[in-house]
Amino acid sequence: MRIGELSRRSGLSRDTLRFYERQGLIHSEPGAEATNSYRDYPEEALITLDQIADAQAAGMSIADLAMLMGQLQAADPDGFDGEAFLDARIAEVEARIARAERFLESLHQARAALAAPPVLL
Amino acid sequence: MRIGELSRRSGLSRDTLRFYERQGLIHSEPGAEATNSYRDYPEEALITLDQIADAQAAGMSIADLAMLMGQLQAADPDGFDGEAFLDARIAEVEARIARAERFLESLHQARAALAAPPVLL
DNA sequence: CAAAACCATGGAGTTGAGTCAACGGTTTTG
DNA sequence: CAAAACCGTTGACTCAACTCCATGGTTTTG
């Protein structure tokens, strides 16, 4: 599909999609027509974009993500310690989720306080 | 305590602390000595800073946080719908945590794949 | 087939969250 | 008491992640 459709279906702007592609997060093919230079994105780009959103919610930067995608499925044990890298990310994400859940809890408490009788004198 | 101590004990830079104070996230008193203009932070600032870190991990912006802190404990039902505001934040944070957990799961899977026998041919 | 809709590229601009540097005061310490 | 360590203010700067704009080519559509 072309960028306009991907934009509509993903909810991301064309600029964002091109930006992600420059950063190596998504990929396209040159497209069938030789007359133009339109990109052609595979259907699975939508899945990738959803995973990117997940990763961002978990606090990953785009640079981290590019590294993860590039290194991990490239199966290259040439000096790059994938296990250590993954373990570090896992620990980070777990810590972040724990913090977010603490915050969620305090939001719930604030909500309950608002719902309760406002003054007791 | 003065800013240097708060910085050491919180792990945040002095500049960050002053930045947070300008944004209204933490507060200080003018300090006892009239000869200087040093700020004096209460012990509880450390707790507040920890809560700020929680909130940031949950994806809250500093502006949102300032609004939350300012509006919520000010008990001002003058047009500001605290319940709706809180409900919206709660939904956001829950969605974010759900996404982060999906990502964590995929990290775990990637980790397991690395640990498993690399090739089976 | 012309107007509207779409696409690419390059580069500048924006926003949020800090960070740094310079300058001049104040405390602490050896 | 002087040097070192600390503090405040102002304003410029950085970095990540987008976002906008101008220009010019390509499809689609009424």
Task: Describe the structure in your own words.
The structure is a homodimer of 121-residue chains. The first copy, chain A, has helices spanning 3-10, 14-22, 45-57, 62-72, 82-115. The first copy, chain A, has a domain at 1-60: Multidrug-efflux Transporter Regulator, Chain: A, Domain 2 (Orthogonal Bundle), CATH 1.10.1660.10. Helix content of chain A is 62%, strand content 0%. The model of chain A has no long low-confidence stretch (mean pLDDT 89). The first copy, chain A, is mainly α and 121 residues long. Chain B binds a DNA duplex (30 and 30 nucleotides) through residues 2-4, 13-16, 18-19, 23, 33, 35-39, 56, 61-63. Chains A, B: Residues 1-71 form the HTH merR-type domain. Chains A, B: This is MerR family transcriptional regulator. Chains A, B: Pfam families: MerR_1 (PF13411). Chains A, B: Keywords: DNA-binding, Repressor, Transcription, Transcription regulation. Chains A, B: GO terms for molecular function: DNA binding; DNA-binding transcription factor activity.
What does the secondary structure layout of this molecule look like, with pairings?
The structure is a homodimer of 121-residue chains.
Chain A: H1 3-10, H2 14-22, H3 45-57, H4 62-72, H5 82-115
The structure holds a DNA duplex (30 and 30 nucleotides).
